[in-house]
């Protein structure tokens, strides 16, 4: 079962919220849970609980991050922590407690086992792991992943206070209040009668060959460049074209 399916089944989010998060994920990347938190549909603690239920792995707690051992964390460096999506925290029950985004990632588990011994994985959202990596290794998070502090409440303004600005505004008003203009009704234009038949648009010249399009796609570094190659190749060949971005079994156009 996928995270989105679990959240919908438990009525934690609605279908429209899931679709919005998937669109956000296609545009900006990151995990689905990260996008749900960024959009305000879930908080981190809720997401952690659902990830634990989904994976069958205990959840990482804030207390575990606070109790992390610098000596154990130093068994890997910050670059490897980012690559594996995992941070070793401390020894417990004959193994090493490790914070992991993907606790079933066999490759990451094997790499970590060779470095720290038996693993006791604890699942955590992407946002919390990046905070943990920044705290233990000094690897700065991107601005996107830094939690924004709540805004200060707006100051209460006394709209009836007789300030100079309010006094000027009142003096500029007519005595009887604003006078609105009379409503104007515009009749729709009559359809012009014509005996001419619609003319099909002429196909324009084709601006890109198949070989050129293939070369553009081969050397593209972003998905937008691939989409542009499709569009240029279709120009002059197709009357219409739909481009779908497929990610994790979901297609968005």
Topology:
Blueprint: H1 3-9, H2 15-28, H3 32-38, H4 44-55, H5 62-66, H6 70-73, H7 78-84, E1 86-92, E2 95-100, H8 106-116, E3 119-123, H9 126-137, H10 164-172, H11 210-218, H12 223-234, E4 245-247, E5 250-252
Parallel strand pairs: 2-3
Antiparallel strand pairs: 1-2, 4-5
Q: Can you put this structure into words, describing what you see?
A:
The chain has 253 residues and is mainly α. The protein contains 12 helices and 5 strands. Strands 1-2-3 form a 3-stranded mixed sheet, with helices on both faces. A two-stranded antiparallel sheet has the order 4-5. Helix 8 links the parallel strand 2 and strand 3. The longest helix has 14 residues. The protein is extended, with a radius of gyration of 29 Å. The two termini are 24 Å apart.
Strand content: 5-15%
SS field, number of helical segments: 12
Report the CATH topology name of one domain: GMP Synthetase, Chain A, domain 3
Tell me the distance between the termini.
24 Å
Main traits of this protein?
3-stranded mixed sheet; GMP Synthetase, Chain A, domain 3; two-stranded antiparallel ribbon; mainly alpha
Summarize this entry quickly.
The chain is 43% helix and 9% strand. By secondary structure, the chain is mostly helical. The chain starts with a helix and ends with a strand.
